Amino acid sequence: MRALVTGGAGFIGSHLVDRLLDEGHEVVVYDNLSTGQRPFLDRALGSKHCQLVVADVLDRDALITAMQGCDVVAHIAANADVRRGIERPERDLEQNTIATSHVLEAMRATGTHRLLFSSTGVIYGEPEVFPTPEDAPLPIQTSLYGASKLGAEGLITAYCHAYGFSARIFRFVSILGPRYSHGHVFDFVRKLLADPEHIEVLGNGKQRKSYLHVDDCVTGMLRALDHHDASIGIFNLGHDDSCVVDESLSWICARLGVEPQRHYTGGERGWIGDSPRVHLDCSRMKALGWRPTHAIRQSVEHTVDYLMDHRWLFDSRG
Q1: pTM greater than the 0.90 cutoff
Q2: Catalytic residues
């Protein structure tokens, strides 16, 4: 199998690239390296079966060229900075929705009909049912990121019906693990390295979230690719457990050996569009034989250890 992975130099994408190569597939990594990191591909690019194309998903012609001969596309590239979406709303539209349109058109032009798509549990907004299943009523969207991903999902399912595509759509919780370069663990570690005596916590620290290790995430994606036959498969990918932000911060502080004074910004949300509770029902994924193998605390600690061993990531993020 030959796969094109957009965002293949990023956090989740680079792990998917490594796994595909380990399973004997050919991989085309497609990334503009704006947030992706070339060092994440050090192992992959040592393989004769891996090719790196440095280009943007908004460049449809480049996508079509790179996609020639591919059997499947894993569209992972996105603007994943949920918190900053309100500052530049066009970024979510361009990089999440319009970019997905370009990927779909490139697939149509090249005759590539199989797609893996990284969506998000943020599309559930603030649901009434926990854990939240895939068929939960979709509420009013409170996040520009979530709205842009939901728009992309709509395009994908329409292309499946119109052109015979086969798609696997994955609604993730927040993913943790090696090569993680944005999110709450990253922010807390960076703040604590700058000032181990004080830490700002967005909201009241009681927001309850679920997290998943990147290895379990990639395993789930490939399991759905191999073991699900419907033309459209929508899957939650998360964990049975959850934790509050304060609890996660305590694990991080213990790992770093610090006890800072906590300063809360107040309110039940960390930012506009933040859902105070995220916990997904993953029964559909489990029916394919998938189970998470990392506890949430283990995933947090693994991420802290990686960041401490790769502090250059803080510089690369400005």
Answers
A1: yes
A2: 145
